[in-house]
Write a structure and sequence with these properties.
The chain is α+β, with helices and mostly antiparallel strands and 101 residues long. 12% of the residues lie in helices and 22% in strands. It has a three-stranded antiparallel β-sheet. The chain is elongated.
């Protein structure tokens, strides 16, 4: 008998569940938290945090300091790192519940 995979007996089945989509739960808008890849040099790619439809190139942190997504200290070299930062930044939104004015 020759090689066959018609029945796929020894092949792991792919999950049919969709990937988990991260969302902000700070208000009723439930913005999607994601990242977008950007080219920052001729051959260099970085990721920028994204909340809803907004790319977050800069924001004011919890201490009142202006932060930039492409500063030398903070460069998101992976999508995961940029999404983690989007989670942090989302809690700084004016619409986030629990904020006192």
């Amino acid at each position: 008998m020759s090689f066959t995979q018609e029945n796929k007996l020894n092949v792991q089945k792919k999950s049919t569940k969709p990937e988990k989509i991260l969302t902000c739960d700070g208000c009723e808008k439930n913005c999607t938290l994601s990242a977008r890849q950007c080219m920052v040099g001729e051959f260099t790619y970085r990721y920028v945090p994204k909340i809803g439809n907004t790319d977050i190139f800069s924001y004011i942190d919890e201490n009142g300091n202006l932060q930039h997504s492409f500063s030398p200290k903070v460069q998101f070299t992976s999508e995961e790192l940029a999404i983690e930062r989007a989670q942090i930044i989302s809690k700084l939104c004016d619409n986030y519940k629990g904020k006192t004015k």
